[in-house]
Automatic annotation (TrEMBL), chain A:
This is Tryptophan--tRNA ligase, cytoplasmic. Its EC number is 6.1.1.2. It is an enzyme of class 6 (ligase). CDD domains: TrpRS_core. InterPro entries: aa-tRNA-synth_I_CS, aa-tRNA-synth_Ic, Rossmann-like_a/b/a_fold, Trp-tRNA-ligase. The keyword Aminoacyl-tRNA synthetase applies. GO terms for biological process: post-embryonic development; reproductive structure development; tryptophanyl-tRNA aminoacylation. Belongs to the class-I aminoacyl-tRNA synthetase family.
UniProtKB/TrEMBL annotation, chain B:
It holds the Pfam family tRNA_edit. It comes from Brassica campestris (Field mustard). Belongs to the PRORSD1 family. One of its GO terms (molecular function) is aminoacyl-tRNA deacylase activity. Residues 193-229 are annotated as: Disordered. This is YbaK/aminoacyl-tRNA synthetase-associated domain-containing protein. Residues 24-151 form the YbaK/aminoacyl-tRNA synthetase-associated domain. The lineage of its organism: Eukaryota, Viridiplantae, Streptophyta, Embryophyta, Tracheophyta.
Length: 408, 309
C-alpha cells in the first residue's frame, strides 16, 4: 500500500509524520504513540482488553500483546463482545509484494495474525497486492506475480493452517463479487477524499488518477474487509465481522473503509494496530528494505545475523565499561533490548535482562549475544518451515475453494 | 477472595475442632516441613493437585509413603491411562487460592474449589493425628481424622477416604467399572493460563461449561456453506483435525509414560516444563504436517480422473 514518496504531502519536519507513505519522528526523536492515537482517533489496547483476550482464548496472550507491540485498536472490544455471544469474525491482512527479501519487520503482522487465528479459531484471508506493486513500482506483470508467489511461501512458513486460510493475489482474484464491491466502494469515495488520502494535488498528472489504479489502491484496504467479496468462503454471511491486524501507519486507509462500510450495508472492519519495528541502527522510523544492514532478513545465515547485530545494532550501553557499570545502559534507545522485547517470549528473563543491563551489571555484549541466539533460532525455524512449502502448497492455499473447518 | 489461614483457624475453633499449630519458615516440600514438625506430632502428608483432560480437578491427600501412581489413579477414575496430570500453577492460584507447595485438603473451603474432588488416603484413619498446611505454607497444623471430617462436613462435603494403593493393576471393563469413577467431578472448570488480577466478570455458567465441548454447544451460523456433510464435532476426530489437540494428545502420553517410569516429585515438575516448552514447537510442526498432507491431497484432487460411468 505504498505510494510514490515524492508526491507525498510536504511535511513540517518539526512535527512527527505518520501516514502510509512516510513515517518520521519529531526532530529526529522517538515516535510519540500517545499523540498518534489522539491524532488518529483510535483507542489504546489496555490491560483489561488483554486480560479479556486471555479469558476468551484460555491461553497466554501473544508476546506482542504483552509487550505493547500491538497497542491500539478500533472496535476490538466490540469484536470480542460478539465473539462471546458466539458471533465469530474473520481476519484480513495483506502484503504488497515489492521485493523477495523479507525481513523480521515484515513477519511481525503475520506472526501476530497466526496467533489470532489459532487462539480464536477463525479463518483468514491474505491479500497480495501484486497489481498495485506492478503499477507503482514499475514491475512487469509477470515479475509482480512471481514475487507474490515467493512472498506467499514466506507467509505460509509462518504457520498458517491451510484449512482456515485463503491467500489471493489481485491479478488472480479480482473479478466477480470482489470487483463488484470495488466499484461500490469507488462510487462512495469523492475525488476530494481520494486526493486527501493520497496527497495528490491539482498538479499531478492524470495518469495517477486514472481509474483502475486509484480504484485498486482505494479498494485495496476496503474490499477484503467485506465478507461478500468472498462468496466461496462466506456465502450468505454478509454481516460477518472482519478484524484487521496492521501497522498503525495503515490507519488512514481503513478509516476510509470504515466510513464507506455502513453506506454499503456492511459491518465496519475492526483494527488492531502495531507500532513500528525499529531499524537496527535506530535512526527513528521503520526498517527499510533498501538498506540491508538496517534489518535482519529471513534468509540471513547465523553468521550474518551475529555480524549485523554486533556491528550495526545501536547500543544504549555506555562508552566505557567503568562508566557502564556506574550508570547502566540507556534502555530507551538500546536496540538489542528493544528487539528482545519483541521476540523474547519469557517475561521473567526479559525483566531480568532489563534490570541487570539498566543498572550496569550486564554488558552490551551479553545482551547482543542473547539477542543473536533468539533471532537465529527464529530465522532457522522459519527457514525450515519455508523449505517445506512447495508450489503445490501455494496452489492449495491460493485455490478458490470452500473452507468447511474454518471455525473449528 | 480466598480464605486466609486465620479465617480457617478461627472456623476450626468455632467448630470446636481440636488442633495443634506449628509455625515455621515457609516450606515448599515435605522434606523441609519435616525439619520443623516432628512426626511425633502427627503423620506428615503429601498433597497433590491434578487435572484431567476435561478440566476437572482433584486433590489427593496421602501419607508420605503411600504410593500414588498417577497412571493407576487415572484408570481407576475411568479416565484411561494418561488421563490426569499435575495441574498447572495457575490453577493452584485460581482454584485453590494457595501458593506453590501449599496444596491442602483445607483448600476446598474456597468457593472457587467447589468442583474440585478431594480424595483422602485410607491410611489416615490409622493415625491419631496428621499434618496439613492451613492454607499457608508457614504454618502446619495437626488434627485427627474426625476433626478433618467434621470440618469437611461443615462446608457441605462428604469426606472421601480411598485405598490409594489398592487395585494396582486395574482392569477396567464392562463388568469391572473403574472403582473411583464416582469421585470424578460433575462439573469442569476453565482456568486461564495466567492468574487473573481482576476477578472474572463473566456469568458463572461460562466457567462451568467444559472448554472442549464449546464448539458443539455454540450453534454454527445457520446460513452455513452449502456443505452437506455438516461436521458433527466428535472429540476423536478433532484430535486429528486440530494441531493443538493433536499435540496435547502426544504430550499427555509422553508425560504419562515419563511419570510412570520415573519416580520423584521433581519428575512431575519436569513433565510440566517439557509440556510448556514443547507445546509451541510441536504445534508448529503439526501445522506444517497438516498443510503438506492437505496440499498433497489437493493436488491429487486436481489430477483425479472422473469416475468412469
Amino acid at each position: 500500500m505504498d505510494v510514490d514518496k515524492k508526491d507525498s504531502i510536504a511535511s513540517d519536519s518539526s512535527d512527527q509524520v505518520v501516514n502510509p507513505w512516510e513515517v518520521s519522528a519529531k526532530d529526529g526523536g522517538k515516535i510519540d504513540y500517545d499523540k498518534l492515537i489522539d491524532q488518529f482517533g483510535c483507542q489504546r489496547l489496555d490491560a483489561s482488553l488483554i486480560d479479556r483476550v486471555q479469558r476468551l482464548t484460555s491461553r497466554q496472550p501473544h508476546v506482542f500483546l504483552r509487550r505493547g507491540v500491538f497497542f491500539a485498536h478500533r472496535d476490538f472490544n466490540e469484536v470480542l463482545d460478539a465473539y462471546e455471544r458466539g458471533d465469530k469474525f474473520y481476519l484480513y491482512t495483506g502484503r504488497g509484494p515489492s521485493s523477495e527479501a523479507l525481513h523480521l519487520g515484515h513477519l511481525i503482522p503475520f506472526m501476530f495474525t497466526k496467533y489470532l487465528q489459532e487462539a480464536f479459531k477463525v479463518p483468514l484471508v491474505i491479500q497480495l497486492t501484486d497489481d498495485e506493486k506492478c503499477m507503482w513500482k514499475n514491475l512487469s506483470v509477470e515479475e509482480s506475480q512471481r514475487l507474490a508467489r515467493e512472498n506467499a511461501k514466506d507467509i505460509i512458513a509462518c504457520g498458517f493452517d491451510v484449512t482456515k486460510t485463503f491467500i489471493f493475489s489481485d491479478f488472480d482474484y479480482v473479478g466477480g463479487a470482489f470487483y463488484k464491491n470495488m466499484v461500490k466502494v469507488a462510487k462512495c469515495v469523492t475525488l476530494n477524499k481520494a486526493m486527501g488520502i493520497f496527497g495528490f494535488s491539482g498538479e499531478d498528472h492524470i495518469g495517477k488518477l486514472s481509474f483502475p489504479p486509484v480504484q485498486a489502491c482505494l479498494s485495496v484496504p476496503a474490499v477484503p474487509s467485506f465478507p461478500s467479496s468472498f462468496p466461496h468462503l462466506f456465502p450468505g454471511k454478509d454481516k460477518l465481522r472482519c478484524l484487521i491486524p496492521c501497522a498503525i501507519d495503515q490507519d488512514p486507509y481503513f478509516r476510509m473503509t470504515r466510513d464507506v462500510a455502513p453506506r454499503l450495508g456492511y459491518s465496519k472492519p475492526a483494527l488492531i494496530e502495531s507500532s513500528f519495528f525499529p531499524a537496527l541502527q535506530a535512526k527513528n522510523g521503520k526498517m527499510s528494505a533498501s538498506d540491508p544492514n538496517s534489518a535482519i532478513y529471513v534468509t540471513d545465515t547465523a553468521k550474518e545475523i551475529k555480524n549485523k547485530i554486533n556491528r550495526y545494532a545501536f547500543s544504549g550501553g555506555q562508552d566505557s565499561i567503568e562508566k557502564h557499570r556506574e550508570i547502566g545502559a540507556n534502555l530507551e534507545v538500546d536496540i538489542p533490548v528493544k528487539y528482545l522485547s519483541f521476540f523474547l517470549d519469557d517475561d521473567t528473563e526479559l525483566e531480568h535482562i532489563k534490570k541487570e543491563y539498566g543498572e550496569g551489571r550486564m554488558l552490551t555484549g551479553e545482551v547482543k549475544k542473547r539477542l543473536t541466539e533468539v533471532l537465529t533460532e527464529m530465522v532457522e525455524r522459519h527457514r525450515m518451515a519455508r523449505a517445506a512449502v512447495t508450489d503445490e502448497m501455494v496452489d492449495a492455499f491460493m485455490a478458490v475453494r470452500p473452507l468447511p473447518s474454518m471455525f473449528e | 477472595m480466598g480464605f486466609s489461614k486465620d479465617q480457617l483457624l478461627s472456623q476450626l475453633q468455632e467448630l470446636e475442632i481440636d488442633y495443634s499449630k506449628y509455625e515455621h519458615p515457609p516450606v515448599l516440600t515435605v522434606e523441609e516441613q519435616a525439619k520443623y514438625v516432628s512426626s511425633s506430632e502427627g503423620a506428615l502428608s503429601k498433597n497433590l493437585f491434578f487435572k484431567d483432560k476435561k478440566h476437572r480437578y482433584y486433590i489427593i491427600s496421602a501419607m508420605v509413603d503411600t504410593k500414588v501412581d498417577i497412571k493407576v489413579l487415572s484408570q481407576r477414575l475411568g479416565l484411561g491411562k494418561g488421563g490426569i496430570r499435575m495441574a498447572p500453577e495457575e490453577a493452584l492460584a485460581e482454584l485453590l487460592q494457595v501458593s506453590l507447595g501449599c496444596v491442602t485438603p483445607f483448600a476446598v473451603v474456597n468457593e472457587s474449589a467447589r468442583d474440585v474432588s478431594l480424595l483422602l488416603d485410607q491410611k489416615f484413619k490409622n493415625q491419631t493425628r496428621f499434618i496439613f498446611h492451613p492454607l499457608s505454607n508457614d504454618v502446619s497444623i495437626s488434627l485427627s481424622t474426625s476433626g478433618l471430617d467434621k470440618f469437611l462436613q461443615s462446608i457441605g462435603r462428604d469426606p472421601v477416604y480411598v485405598d490409594l494403593e489398592a487395585n494396582a493393576n486395574p482392569v477396567v471393563g464392562k463388568d469391572q467399572p473403574p472403582d473411583l469413577a464416582v469421585y470424578v467431578p460433575s462439573n469442569s472448570v476453565v482456568v486461564p493460563e495466567l492468574p487473573n488480577k481482576t476477578p472474572s466478570a463473566q456469568a458463572p455458567p461460562k466457567n462451568v461449561s467444559a472448554e472442549k465441548t464449546k464448539p458443539v454447544a455454540s450453534p454454527k451460523p445457520s446460513k452455513s456453506t452449502g456443505n452437506v456433510k455438516s461436521v458433527v464435532q466428535n472429540s476423536g476426530l478433532s484430535v486429528f483435525k486440530n494441531p493443538d489437540k493433536f499435540v496435547e494428545e502426544i504430550l499427555d502420553k509422553t508425560s504419562a509414560l515419563l511419570l510412570s517410569e520415573v519416580k520423584g516429585e521433581n519428575v512431575e515438575a519436569l513433565a510440566e516444563t517439557l509440556r510448556k516448552r514443547l507445546t509451541s514447537e510441536f504445534t508448529h510442526l503439526a501445522v506444517m504436517y497438516k498443510n503438506i498432507a492437505y496440499s498433497e491431497g489437493f493436488y491429487a484432487g486436481t489430477q483425479c480422473q472422473p469416475k468412469r460411468q
